[in-house]
Amino acid sequence: MASLAEIRAKLSAMENKGSSNSPTQSDNAIYPFWNIDEGTSCTLRFLPDEDVNADFFWVERQMIRLTFPGVKGGDSRPVTVQVPCMEMWNETCPVLTEVRPWFKDPSLEDMGRKYWKKRSYIFQGFVNENPLNESTPENPIRRFVIGPQIFNIIKSALMDPDMENLPTDYVNGTDFRLTKTTKGQYADYSTSKWARKESALTEDQLSAIDTHGLFNLADFLPAKPTAEGVQAIAEMFEASVNGDQYDPDRWGNFYKPYGVDIGSKTQATVAPVQATPQPSVAPVAETVVETPTPTPAPVVEEASAPAPAAEPADQGKKSADDILAMIRNRQS
Q1: Within 13 Å, how many C-alpha atoms sit on residue 95's CB side?
Q2: What total of structural domains would you count in the chain?
Q3: pLDDT tens-digit profile of 117-171?
Q4: What CATH number does the domain containing 203 carry?
Q5: Which domain holds residue 285?
Q6: Could you give the CA distance from residue 86 to residue 115 in angstroms, rounded to a whole number?
């Protein structure tokens, strides 16, 4: 596990740089903190990644939502397919390659934001104070799916020189108090903060770590797509922009709409993992396979995507060719 100084150096490097097969489980290892009542708090104690070579005590997931008006030859209701962004592996993403230039045109900003990658962060640890009426699983080490708002609070404290020890330290670690309020109609966690005092894990917690072990957090990221999978993502993106239906014969072996049965042909699927609620413009669900679906929560993405402008009345009618033609005409 990296030291606090190494984590700070890596975070600084990421900022200066411009910031640039989940196992299926049926347990309740994901702690649904988004279900706590407004005005209440839960206290989390983060633990390190099982992977001693991991840079951080969390992993970042980047997903893209592709919407379709229905399934070809089947359901006519709108469906959504979640696909991994190739930038998660520092490779070129066919979707973002097309989408990035759209933000230079105010008429395309909303469409660009719709297809922009959504980030979430997976942590693990103990729930030291739990206001939810739920039974603790046999393994008390829970996973936490954190959205950008809460993550930025966590990251800012790590960069603070007043924090002398890693918050995951078994003896001199620090609890994180996650507080839920509301801002407008959305949940707000901006008053969440680290505890003022360090504390040691209890004997029961140390025993739980010995008994159950830690999670390798990378196991809960989507599998890296093959070359054929990347091609399928590019094709689905174009079809989504064009308003075409999802075609299970073309893409069923790679990704499918969550909860839609298209037979046994699908080999790799991405099911939703709920991201934490963040105040924003539109509800977005981020995901991991075993996460229950809490109240939809909007997510604000990174600086690469400017604030949304009002969508033109005919925006939904633009095809991928129309958009690309606009971009090429503007560049010429």
Answers
A1: 30
A2: 1
A3: 999 999 999 999 999 988 888 999 999 999 999 999 999 989 888 888 999 999 9
A4: 3.90.198.10
A5: 4-313
A6: 14
